[in-house]
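Give me the 3D structure for N-acetyltransferase domain-containing protein.
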Amino acid sequence: MRSIDCEGRPIAVRPFGEADQDAALAFARSLPEHDLLFLSRDITQPRVVAAWARDIAEGSITSFLAWDDGEVVGTCALVRDALSWSPHVGEVRVLLSPDVRGCGLGALLAQAMVDEARALGLAKLTARMTVDQVGAVGLFEALGFRAEAMLRDQARDRAGELHDVVVLAMHVARADALHGMFTAGEELGADS
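Predicted structure for N-acetyltransferase domain-containing protein (192 residues):
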C-alpha cells in the first residue's frame, strides 16, 4: 500500500480487490461524465465494473484504488491483452475525483502503472484522453508520454456531442535510456 498527503488529506492507495466493486462503482458515478469519455466502456454500469474485477482476477488488468476516509477518490489501471497483435503494449488509465486533483495523486497513480509495465516487461504504453483534458495531457507528458494520434469525433457523450480523443504513447526502453542519460549527467555534474 502507498499513501500520499493530498493537501492535508491522507490518501491510501491499494490494489483493487473483489470486495471493492461497489465503492468503485460509486466513484465512477460521482465523476463528471466528460471525465469518462476516453474509456472504451461505461464504468458507471455494474456489469462493466464486475468485468473489470474479473479482468483483474484473470491478470489482464492491474488496478489500484485511492481511498480517502472510506471512499474511492481515484483509480488507475494498466490494461493489456496477451491475445492481441500487441501483447507488448499496455494502456494506462487514471481517473481522479475533481476535489483531489493538483496534489500529486494523479502522478503517483500514473507512475505506479508505468512501474508495473516495466515489471511486466511491456515495451510501449499508451494513454487516451479528450483533447481538452489539459491537466491529464501534461501529467502524462511529464512522465515521458508523447502525442501519437488524434482520433476525431471518437467519443460521443449522452447528449450526442462528439469529442476528439488524443492518444499519447511512451516507449519504455527509450524513456528509460533518456532517464539514464539525464541521471548520468547529474552524477557527472556532482563530481565536478
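The CA atoms of residues 158 and 188 lie 55 Å apart. Let me know if you want a second pass.
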